[in-house]
Write a structure and sequence with these properties.
Shape: globular
Number of domains: 2
Strand content: 15-25%
CATH superfamily of the largest domain: Spore Coat Polysaccharide Biosynthesis Protein SpsA, Chain A
Order of helices and strands: EHEHEHEEHEEEHEHEHHH
Structural class: alpha/beta
CATH architecture of the largest domain: Alpha-Beta Complex
Largest sheet: 10 strands, mixed
CATH topology of the largest domain: Spore Coat Polysaccharide Biosynthesis Protein SpsA, Chain A
Length: 281
Amino acid sequence: MRKTVAIITPAYKAQVTLPATVRSVLEQSHGDWQHWIIADDGADYAGFLAEQGLADPRQVFLSSGGMGLGASRARNVALDRLETQYAAILDADDRLKPQKLERAVAALAEYGIVTTALDVMDMDFSHLRHVGAGPDRVLSPGEHKRVNISMDSMIAWDRSRGDGRYDPGMSNMTDLEFLLQLYRTIPQSCHLGTPLHDYVKRDGSMSNGKDVAAGMIASKREILRRLGSGYYGLAPEDVAGLAGFLTISLAAEATYGAALAAKPGLLFEDHLEPMLASGRV
């Protein structure tokens, strides 16, 4: 039996990137989906996509109710409304590989959370690197970030087994924070090692800007605090695994600026990965 997947896409001034995102949904081998596009800028994305020849009756259009309220609030608008059992996140500048939903739905028959490897690209969709590529595997919360070292908005999940809402008070790392909410009631995730999600590195989303880096550091520290307080109800070994990752990631944030100056174009993932491998802080 095919399962309907609600794909949630917040859109803020997304006219340049959204067509490629929507096209990737239209090209899915699993056709039982709803695409919830939430305008966070007052734009008429239904009309815009129709003009682009990308309208589809499976698309659902909502508004965040404001201007630039943030992706977390926009996503929550959809989460408060949708009724499907399965949901997935897709940012308005990323893309799904054609088999992403088919593979995710198959795995969701057994596991409550599915993550996939990433095809990391620049804004022209040129390949930069993969993240999390390798064999399919089952991960505990404490193991997750050692595999998925970058970006967690590639998840799909079973809403009957785990629920949550995005935290609009956090400036960054909201995808990981949301995933930790799901881990409260879903003890393991299934990671598909085939890159099935295109993660586009945009200038404003990389950790090479002062304001972005400050937000990342503050958010990582807040998640560390929540982990230490037992906020997510995770087992001690999972808390230790996540805290270890975040501690090394914070050390990487502190040294990334100098490393980038020495090697222009250095990806944060390429800076972080050897630090994780060595365990050094």
